Amino acid sequence: MQQIFETYAAHVLPTYGRFPVAFVRGAGCRLYDAADRAYIDFASGIGVNSVGHAHPVWVEAVARQAATLTHVSNLYYSEPGGRLAARLTALSGLRGVFFANSGAEANEGAIKVARKYSHDRYGPDRSTVVTLSGSFHGRTVTTLAATGQEVFHRHFGPFTAGFRHVPPGDFEALAAQPDDVCAVLLEPIQGEGGVWPLDGGYVRQVAALCRERDWLLLCDEVQTGIGRTGDWFAFQSLGIEPDVVTFAKGIAGGLPFGGFLTGARAADTLGPGDHATTFGGTPLCCAAALATLDILTPVLPGIKAKGAALRQAIAEMGLPRVTGTRGAGLMIGVALAPGETPRDWAERLLRAGLVVLTAGQDALRLLPPLVIGDDDIAAGLAIFQATLGRY
Ligand SMILES: *Cc1c(COP(=O)(O)O)cnc(C)c1O
Fold it and tell me: What is the set of domains in the chain, with CATH numbers?
């Protein structure tokens, strides 16, 4: 592995603080490094490998599609694209879908829908998108502007104008916004910011305000969507009808894919030439997404209970370094005691054979594959308990 690290050091831009491991293969919820050591995967490549690694149904679907037709561009129709669109609109209850490649690109599209919707009705002076402090919406210059964390607003200015941030849960701050707003963009559970679920009552108030003022409600479900929280989309258990819902990470079980769904109000906003992307919705990625949805359909009803049991098990460990858990389904934040550094604990857990993520300032973040079984959960928790209880 040392040789791989050195090649990276010599040739790859140092934009990531990588953990010291090179993985070479995965099977189910286990990863194997270059020395063939096994690790339990509680990270899913940041919520992407929702069906685990090398799932036979997924592998078969992707291999078959790769050998048939990988890409044709959006100048033509493809059968997997139509089938996936019908499937996603049915399971979300929304009307139309646009296929893109990543979470940031999906959010860019949602922002464009909101601005055009408003421009068509009210002209150019109503273009501000309000987002929440602590949010994360991506790494493009526009989605960085949307992201409500000051650390992301350095180095790369000028950022796209037309974004303001309000504290999550502070309805009055939103209601007091001036008359230049076209949309509110929010994550139902803030992921990168620390796994902070928004209060359901607050979200319903926001949805009602959006209706009243004819602002679009944009839900960034790049992390929460496609089953992660135990619903296909987190908005479905909040009692709201968003106008645009973005998704990405878990949709295609590991291939780069994202997009946005529009509800009835926004479905007719974009027309020919208004938006496009070369790689969006390739037959290969659509086949991977269809296989992913097939695999997840029977698994989905058990995800909330699985997550609750995992959190209960952590609580029962009584670890002094753990102050609590938060989240929904298999999107779990484990809050560490003041003074503990999540990154250091993630590295210790990795060395002990458990892959986890961090979130915000104080939390470890667990995003295991949604297909994880009780045995792999137990094996991962044993490493978690032994490591967090040591030192
Ligand atoms: C990861 C993430 C993004 C960015 O997705 P990319 O695919 O990295 O561009 C945007 N929003 C949320 C909520 C995310 O978790």
Answer: 2-55+299-390 (3.90.1150.10), 69-296 (3.40.640.10)
What is the Å distance from ligand 1's center to 137 Cα?
6
Does the beta carbon of 108 sit less than 6 angstroms from any atom of ligand 1?
Answer: no
Q: Is 195 in the pocket of ligand 1 (CB under 6 A)?
A: no
Whether residue 248 has its Cβ less than 6 Å from ligand 1: yes
Residues 281-312: tens digit of each pLDDT: 999 999 999 999 999 999 999 999 999 999 99
Mean pLDDT of 239-254: 98
Distance CA 110, CA 261 (A): 9
| Number of residues that make up the chain | 391
d(C-alpha 120, C-alpha 114), whole Å = 10
pTM above 0.85, yes or no: yes
Is the peptide bond between 158 and the residue preceding it cis, with omega within 30 degrees of 0?
A: yes
Q: Is the CB of 191 under 6 A from ligand 1?
A: yes
Alpha carbon distance 223, 97 (integer Å): 18
Going by the DSSP 8-state scheme, the letter that residue 193 receives in this structure is: T
